[in-house]
Amino acid sequence: MVKHGKKYQEAAKLIEDDRLYSPTDAVALLRRMPERGFDETVEVHFRLGIDPRQADQTVRSTVVLPHGTGKEPRVLVFAVGDAARIAQEAGADYVGSDDLVKKIQDGWLEFDATIAMADQMGKVGGLGRILGRRGLMPNPRSGTVVRTPEDLPTVLNELKGGRVEFRNDRTGLVHVGIGKRSFDDAKILENMYALIDAVQRVKPAAAKGVYCRSITLTSTMAPGIPVDVPAAIAAANAALS
């Protein structure tokens, strides 16, 4: 059984038994929990009513968080020629082709997101076992496989500005960081609403029964705060209407 520290135990005592918190109350409660010695990441966790073993029930998409994540990602772009030049001018941190493939095969992973021109996927595909398990593999469904160089600046700006990818794990859970504890309440709530809306929009047609079974708000070293799902969905709909 995991033994938690004093601050964690103090925070856990603040959560009322059998209570589901509105998003506003959940954020307010998170704010009352003891602070750590660093700027914790605020996270939202969903338990979804899907069968993760079925390909037609996979939940995977992206969302642009209106206030970003609190950290500008280092973006790597697989491109050559004009596409490489455009990527560099648009602010990519690393640009290349065979040289980057070799570097990654040798163990280098000092980046947070990847984009690939479609003509590079034949080379990048061999990195699936390395990048895939870390959620870094370029994928058409997430918009990170680009067909024309002119589209690169848009995708780069979205990634730099707060676009994050989410997908369910093998237990049907989705985990997403939505900002930092240093964010004010309004920014955390707005990012949370954008994520809830995005998860709702990609409900698989094959999913049966209740789709969003639970939502939990937490931070890096804090206990989870159970959120009232209907209230959260209604608040997200109202905020984004």
Description:
Helix 8 (185-201) crosses helix 9 (229-240). The protein is built from nine helices and ten strands. The strands form three sheets. A four-stranded antiparallel β-sheet has the order 8-1-9-10. It is an alpha/beta fold and 241 residues long. The protein has two domains: 19-68 and 163-240, 2-Layer Sandwich (Ribulose 1,5 Bisphosphate Carboxylase/Oxygenase); 75-161, 3-Layer(aba) Sandwich (Rossmann fold), CATH 3.40.50.790.
- Would you identify the CATH architecture of the largest domain? 2-Layer Sandwich
What's the story with the biggest beta sheet? 4 strands, antiparallel
Please give the radius of gyration in angstroms. Answer: 19 Å
Name of the CATH first level of the largest domain: Alpha Beta
Number of strands: 10
Work out the count of structural domains: 2
Biggest sheet strand line-up: 8-1-9-10
Average per-residue pLDDT, rounded, comes to 95
Low-confidence stretches: none
Count of DSSP H/I helices: 9
CATH-level-4 superfamily name of the largest domain = Ribosomal protein L1/L10, rRNA-binding domain
Range of helix content: 25-40%
- Structural class category: alpha/beta
CATH topology of the largest domain: Ribulose 1,5 Bisphosphate Carboxylase/Oxygenase
How large is the share of residues in beta strands? Answer: 15-25%
Q: Strand-and-helix sequence, N→C?
A: HHEEEHEHEHHEHEEHEEH
Distance between the termini: 44 Å
Tell the overall outline: globular
Helices and strands, with pairings:
Elements: H1 6-13, H2 23-32, E1 41-48, E2 60-64, E3 75-78, H3 81-89, E4 94-96, H4 98-105, E5 113-117, H5 121-124, H6 128-131, E6 145-146, H7 152-161, E7 163-167, E8 173-180, H8 185-201, E9 212-219, E10 225-227, H9 229-240
Parallel strand pairs: 3-4, 3-5, 5-6
Antiparallel strand pairs: 1-8, 1-9, 2-7, 9-10
Helix pairs in contact: 2-8, 8-9
